[in-house]
């Protein structure tokens, strides 16, 4: 009788442990962990409209925004501006999970003008981007035989507070070829400061 009683106790404990573990090869009721989730972009506190107004009597020129970002953002506690705008070469980690191919090169030499008295408007998502190394398995639809990016861009939300935006410009432009090849000359920057996320629009004048 003693041996039989201990046998019942052992079987009962084994069954309870099996129920807690979910059985071999199971991750429990929560399902398997998503190894890609830590690389997804955060949710921003809101978008901001950035308006550059040319108060000069002659045109000024922008980066195209295709290969080179047109503006940068620096929270008040940071001295160096960070990437706030994505170019065609910047694949977000979110998008990388479903893209089948990835851009490897960017060729654009245009330098768009802002005419005297005119404005140019950009939209900032409220995120700042950093390049991170996401596991290769997260690029689900990419062809394994093709080149995958070694890094992807992850967006991080900006905490409430003062923010400075920097917009690089050119005072002049040089035409390099008949097909519209251009080079910006005499570079300079304009800056504006606003309270985020309270300020939804910031206007930056280009002084004469």
Descriptive overview:
It is built from two helices and eleven strands; from the N terminus they run αββββαβββββββ. It is mainly β. It has a domain at 42-87 and 107-128 and 154-206: Sandwich (Immunoglobulin-like), CATH 2.60.40. The longest helix has 20 residues, at 2-21. This is Lipoprotein. Keywords: Signal. Residues 1-18 form the signal peptide.
- Class by helix and strand content? mainly beta
Strand share of the residues?
Answer: 25-35%
Low-confidence stretches: 1-29
The radius of gyration is 27 Å
Helix content bin? 10-25%
Main sheet properties: 6 strands, antiparallel
CATH topology of the domain at 42-87 and 107-128 and 154-206: Immunoglobulin-like
Strand elements, count:
11
Shape: flat
Organism: Polyangium sorediatum
Keywords: Signal
Protein name: Lipoprotein
Signal peptide: 1-18
């Amino acid at each position: 009788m003693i041996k039989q009683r201990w046998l019942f106790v052992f079987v009962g404990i084994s069954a309870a442990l099996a129920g807690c573990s979910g059985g071999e090869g199971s991750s429990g009721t929560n399902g398997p962990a998503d190894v890609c989730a830590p690389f997804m972009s955060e949710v921003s506190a809101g978008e901001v409209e950035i308006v550059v107004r040319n108060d000069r009597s002659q045109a000024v020129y922008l980066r195209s925004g295709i290969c080179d970002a047109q503006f940068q953002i620096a929270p008040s506690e940071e001295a160096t501006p960070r990437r706030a705008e994505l170019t065609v070469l910047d694949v977000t980690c979110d998008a990388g999970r479903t893209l089948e191919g990835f851009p490897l090169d960017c060729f654009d030499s245009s330098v768009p003008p802002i005419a005297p008295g005119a404005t140019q408007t950009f939209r900032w998502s409220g995120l700042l981007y950093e390049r991170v190394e996401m596991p290769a398995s997260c690029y689900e639809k990419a062809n394994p035989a093709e080149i995958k990016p070694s890094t992807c861009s992850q967006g991080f939300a900006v905490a409430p507070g003062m923010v400075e935006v920097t917009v690089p410009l050119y005072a002049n432009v040089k035409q390099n070829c008949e097909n519209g090849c251009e080079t910006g000359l005499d570079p300079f920057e304009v800056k504006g400061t606003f309270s985020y996320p309270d300020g939804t629009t910031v206007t930056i004048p280009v002084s004469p």
